[in-house]
Amino acid sequence: MCRMTGLVLLLLLPAQVSADAVKGLYVGSDFYAPGDSVQNAARISGFNRLFLSFLHVDAEGNLTYNNTPVVQNGVYVGDPAWGIKLAALKAPPTDIKRIELAIGGDQNEASFANIKRLIAAQGTDADSILHKDFLALKNATGVDAIQFIDEKTYDVPSVVAFGNMLAGLGLNVTLRPYANQSF
């Protein structure tokens, strides 16, 4: 990894790169707060995926992006321009085709334990807070995928239920199992 212009760069490239290989870039708060120069740099970077880190799910199911509330009780409360900014990142001329929000991010983070408890209590149907919150997030931001970065809970049944719920909302799901590759 190297740091340039406020961006953390992570190349996901095989030895020989095909034209449609995944070239991903992990980014943080610059893609929520005003950061037009950073966002413009990403548009012309040659990367085709952006991984926005980190989304968190609290014990009530509310969503924060880093430390900023974005969805509470099924209502998007974040920056009303965030979706417009994210859509602009994929507008030509750019190679960016997909934007993923990454949930989790470190071993002390409780998102997946919270998701497990919420699914056990409410399930994942349209009346559940997870369904309402992620639908509000998708509608407000237009993100393409949710990336799971579970570094400690590793609960297969809740992750499968959560992933199926997200897929039902039209979101793609990716998994980065951190240190537990068998998960």
Low-confidence stretches: 1-17
What is the CA-based Rg, rounded? 16 Å
N- and C-termini, Cα separation: 25 Å
How large is the share of residues in beta strands?
Answer: 15-25%
Order of helices and strands: EEEHEEEEHEHHEHE
Shape: globular
Tally of individual helices? 5
Question: What is the typical, i.e. mean, pLDDT?
Answer: 85
SS elements, strand count: 10
Could you give a short account of the major beta sheet? 10 strands, mixed
Helical fraction: 25-40%
**Which structural class should the secondary elements be placed in?**
alpha/beta
SSE blueprint:
Elements: E1 2-4, E2 7-9, E3 24-27, H1 36-43, E4 49-57, E5 63-65, E6 68-72, E7 75-76, H2 82-89, E8 98-104, H3 111-122, H4 129-141, E9 145-149, H5 156-168, E10 172-175
Parallel strand pairs: 3-4, 4-8, 8-9, 9-10
Antiparallel strand pairs: 1-2, 2-3, 4-5, 5-6, 6-7
How does this structure look, described?
This protein is of the alpha/beta class. It is built from five helices and ten strands; from the N terminus they run βββαββββαβααβαβ. The chain has helices at residues 36-43, 82-89, 111-122, 129-141, 156-168, and strands at residues 2-4, 7-9, 24-27, 49-57, 63-65, 68-72, 75-76, 98-104, 145-149, 172-175. Strand 9 (145-149), helix 5 and strand 10 (172-175) form a beta-alpha-beta unit.
